[in-house]
Design goal:
The protein is of the alpha+beta class. Helix content is about 45%, strand content about 20%. The strands form two sheets. Strands 1, 2, 3, 4, 5 and 6 form a six-stranded mixed beta sheet that branches. It has a three-stranded antiparallel beta sheet with strand order 7-8-9. Bound molecules: iron/sulfur cluster.
């Protein structure tokens, strides 16, 4: 499989979005945040290009202005005030950065450097390729190499974020694939936060990089499993509000159905079921039996029509698919015994095993998957929230 960090990130955020963008190759309309981020990145790239002299700050800002106008051609803003504020924010970031980082002070090895890092899956012997684009690579005076990624986000995360950052580890692998002689050199990994004029610096050992490869393999196997089952659940998060895809996503599409289409009999039954379902739940007065019947109507309707969420006047329900990996516990025992973790699940059950799984070394996760994994178990339920949502609330 050929995969980039951004595709992996999309998969972790929401498998449905991953399928739509990465596998089906659909393009999402650009957001204003993306327009700002891209034009600032392009201007920073320009700042470090010498022809024959490095550009002045005015030239960098002019370059940014042109790119900004191109990038926002199809982007919607709340009003002109918001558009102007975002544009000025870009100028501020670039001016501050330019003054603090004169281009002639750096030895730059690469700008917007594309990489491809192949690695072999020991399970299948298949070669996977990690791909990506590194914002900048510098050579420092003490013979250290620095991989830099610019961030235009408003929030500056904690140091821990850089230390565990998958993107930086993948970029480290990418730089080594391109320049294998860096293998013995000191490499530092830097996140440069342009809104704050701050950096977070970290590094990875060769063991860390091996662990990264194993982590990616676990993710690739999970993606392959989803491809095999053609199973792409929509996973809602605050990020849903950031992109306009929600009109065609099963988590939200029910809200955007045309109001003038006649309500079919199934939908009437489902809507009635939803009203009753929410009423009963909130009043704590329902019999379990009727709840199960209503759930069956709702889940049946949503499954047949392809909706992950159903909205009514009293609230909405979300079809929640919970997958549980079923292991052969005896075989899992020997894998966990080997690293002294068996005690933690002595009264072994699947829930406990699932709970400690993410904290295990990926080598052990792979071993469990290879030797003890039996099947996936999917259970369905409805999650309810008493809140009326209108499409306008989402825009
Ligand atoms: S709107 Fe949310 S749930 Fe739907 S595809 Fe996008 S991220 Fe996933």
């Amino acid at each position: 499989m050929r995969i980039s960090y951004s595709s992996l990130e999309q998969f972790l955020r929401c498998p449905y979005l991953f399928k739509y963008i990465v596998l089906d190759k659909n393009k999402l309309p650009k957001t204003k945040e993306a327009a700002l981020g891209t034009s600032v990145h392009e201007a920073l790239n320009f700042q470090f290009k010498k022809s024959p002299l490095f550009p002045t700050l005015d030239e960098v800002i002019n370059f940014y202005n042109k790119r900004w106008e191109e990038r926002i051609a199809k982007v919607e803003f709340k009003d002109d005030y918001e558009k102007d504020a975002m544009h000025q924010n870009g100028i501020l970031m670039l001016s501050r950065f330019y003054k603090k980082n004169p281009a002639w002070n750096f030895t730059i090895l690469g700008l917007e450097m594309r990489f491809e890092a192949p690695f072999i899956d020991p399970e299948t012997n298949e070669t996977h390729t990690l791909s990506g684009i590194i914002d900048r690579i510098d050579k420092l005076d003490d013979n250290t190499y620095e991989i830099i990624d610019y961030k235009t986000a408003r929030r500056m995360p904690a140091q821990d974020h850089a230390d565990k950052n998958l993107q930086l580890a993948i970029y480290h692998l990418g730089a080594l694939a391109r320049w294998p002689h860096l293998r013995d050199k000191k490499i530092r990994l830097t996140l440069q936060f342009l809104q704050h004029g701050e950096t977070l610096v970290t590094s990875r050992t060769s063991e860390d990089l091996e662990e990264t490869k194993r982590r990616i393999l676990v993710m690739i196997h999970t993606i392959e499993e989803h491809i095999k089952n053609n199973d792409w659940p929509a996973k809602s998060s605050p990020l849903c509000a950031m992109h306009p895809y929600n009109k065609i996503c099963p988590m939200w599409s029910y809200l955007y159905q045309k109001k003038d289409i006649s309500v079919d009999i199934d939908e009437k039954a489902a809507k009635d079921a939803l009203s009753e379902y929410i009423g009963i739940k909130s009043a704590h007065a329902a019999s379990n039996e009727r709840m199960m019947e209503l759930q069956a109507i709702l889940l049946g309707f949503m499954k047949n029509k392809g909706f992950s969420r159903l909205f009514g006047n009293e609230g909405y329900v979300t079809r929640n698919l919970r997958e549980q990996d079923i292991y052969d516990v005896e075989k899992a025992k020997s894998a966990l015994d080997a690293i002294g973790k068996w005690e933690e699940i002595l009264t072994a059950d699947h829930k406990k095993l699932e709970k400690i799984l993410p904290s295990l070394p990926s080598q052990t996760q792979i071993r469990l998957h290879e030797e003890a994994f039996l099947r996936k178990k999917t259970t369905e339920s409805l999650l309810m929230r008493r809140k009326k949502i209108d499409p306008e609330d989402l825009e």
